[in-house]
Amino acid sequence: MVSDSRPLYDRPIDANRKIKVVCLGAGYSGILTAIRFPQHIPNLELVIYEKNADIGGTWYENRYPGIACDIPSHVYQFTFESNPNWSRFYATGGEIQEYLKDVAWKYDVEKYVRFRHYFQRAEWDESIQQWRIEVTDLNTNKTVTDTCDILLKGTGLLNTWKWPDIPGLHDFKGPYMHSANWDSSFDWTDKRVALIGAGSSGIQILPNIQPKAKQVVHFMKGKTWISPVGYGAEEEGESDGVEISEEQRKVFRENPSIYQKYRHQIEGGMNKSQLVTFRDTDIQKLFWKMSDDSMKEKLKKKPWIYESMRPDYPPGCRRLTPGPGYLEALVEDNVEFVGTGIRKVTETGLVDDNGDFHEVDAIIYATGFDYSFNSAATPIIGRGGKTLEEVWTPHPEAYLSLCAPKMPNLFFFLGPNGGPGAGSFIAMLENVVDYVIQCVQKLQREYVASMEVSETAQKAFSEHVDRYFAKTIFTYKCKSWFKRNNEDGRIVGLWPGSSVHAQEALKSPRFEDFLFVQRPETQQNILTWLGNGMTTAQENDEKTTGYLDTVDVPPAINKGPRPGKKDASVNGHEDGLSPHGETEVKVVSEHIEELTAAVATVPL
Ligand code: NAP
């Protein structure tokens, strides 16, 4: 767009410099980037490197039986892309993936994505004020290098699955797989299957394999709550009816206002759920009791399971899952519950911590991900050679979850403290993207080379995070990925507040919290970018009145005609116009062509 070589002071104010943005990952964050950045950043070159062969991130990768989102579908969508056709209250992974593909197609997202490109390394080059990036092209196994002004890390929070540390794991002779690396050829019909783990994944898998399996031996070494009501559902049972009938969907499709009202209702319920996360409140105690009663009731056929899995911390301390059908499946006759850890795996089965042997045909490890935030394998090396790993020792910290000291022009999507503890994560993500866009607009328009958050601002945010969580249930002793899979320690997985709180906090950047490096063009005079007093549209003789199309009309306080209003067209004299006003207007309009021609000859 700006190819002219005129100095800045001789260019229009909006002669935005070219900006190259690289985003890592094409899940929700990357897709949003590919929609919003081209919309708001002119003169943009955008590249998204995605390790998989398709978009979708976690929804492309996770394919275990029962994979679904335990957040209501109507909340788990972009604010600007309502889907009235969700077929279930908790959409399956496949349906979410289809939604993302539809959205990506509509906004031509894939043209920015280089699929099967695995990010390896990034290093900040001070001399060019850009990131140098290395990516492996998985098609050719060759290293691709690239540079960019802005680096966005949208690789997801829970991306790296790992085998648990159980001796003999690979000695097992039958099929075995991790939930996040599902073998789609595996058929569990009439098989004895060990299911290890009762996090969100294991909880979804059990009710889906139990009906056809001969037997499921379910290992749960820790404790967990199963939520009596689903997120966004107001009452117990409301969300168990997971199917949304075609009749209902038709109503949503044909009545956008009814559907929008429904979105408000479900999302409002999600926002309210924050109230149960504050310690020692009545509502929190009530929810604790409701969860306890519900679990006790649903497990009454096998009360020893209730005794074994009932935690002594409040529900929500570790990520809560509604798990429709999970407790019901647990009490089925073909499910054996083992409330201990696993001593070892043999060729034919597993030995539990009590020394009992369980012979099985197949093993499913729903044992979770790497929660360390460790980036050593794919290093990011910032200003002065400081690695992200060093910046994040002893714990990962990010200013407003978005950026870290020594890491200029690097922004995280769902960085440390980036997930809202209550409310829509997608709505928050949209605000994160809008926030980063505002930063990039500043860098572009004002010819700023780089911005880096100050240590002081980072510390202030971290202190705030600690103060906030001290009053919440998240800091009870419970093993949770919010604390990097520890029982104690800093909360790094959650935003200090609700989604709506985050949306408010991220409305506009506090630029005083950043350190800036100017580009050479503005080093003599920081305001050189004010340019020649014109805009590009003026210079190109294009439409200059766009502001009239986007008027922010203030709400009128008084409606109708002002009392005592005079008809000025009948008698202009009384309103201060000369009695000859009409004649004067006529004279001006007669000369309008002459005037226009004269203005056109004024030298630029
Ligand atoms: P997870 O929550 O970390 O659960 C892992 C389970 O495996 C735990 O029960 C853990 O027990 C057990 N485990 C780990 N190592 C073990 C070992 N050596 N021996 C025996 N048991 C072992 O993992 P996840 O279920 O995959 O879920 C991770 C996160 O992904 C969730 O919290 C959620 O945020 C996200 N997720 C979301 C959805 C969704 O619908 N939105 C679905 C799936 C996952 P201990 O806790 O006792 O260690």
TrEMBL record:
The text of the family note is:
Belongs to the FAD-binding monooxygenase family.
The lineage's top-level taxon is: Eukaryota
Protein name, entry field: FAD/NAD(P)-binding domain-containing protein
Cofactor(s) needed by this chain:
FAD
Record flagged with keyword Oxidoreductase: yes
Composition bias of kind Basic and acidic residues appears in 564-581
Can the keyword Flavoprotein be found in this entry's annotation? yes
Query: Which lineage?
Result: Eukaryota, Fungi, Dikarya, Ascomycota, Pezizomycotina
Note one Pfam family from the annotation: FMO-like
Span of the signal peptide: none
What GO molecular-function term can you cite, just one? N,N-dimethylaniline monooxygenase activity
